[in-house]
Specification:
alpha+beta, 5 helices, 4 strands, 21% strand
Length: 144
Amino acid sequence: MQIDDTDRNLITLLQDNARLPVATLARRLGLARTTVQARLDRLEQSGVIAGYALRLGQAARPALRATALLSIEPRSGPAVLARLKSLAQVQRVHTTSGRFDLIVTIEAETTEALDETLDRIGEAKGVKGSESLIHLATKLDRGA
């Protein structure tokens, strides 16, 4: 599906605040409310907008966040992913190119919980090596 500049502007407004009423979106875009509603319906039906979600503020997030970079054995991806899925502190897993095979985002309330999670990841069958990076301060968060 083709999206135009108006769709992009609408998506940007929704990324900033998905609770904006259609009338407010229409006013900010300089369009009729029915036009904006039709665009929203089209973007949702085509899968460009997959849904609307709550984004937690800093006060409600776990105290610690980290990224683990994993190197895994050939053909061990499914087993490693199953292990990662079983760990509640693991929030996201991405495959990547380069020196590491997976990027894992972890959130934990305490250093002990973070350490335990990193240990469980390192012990997983198929993990050759890892490097972990603890997030210190967030300088930019676009909510993605």
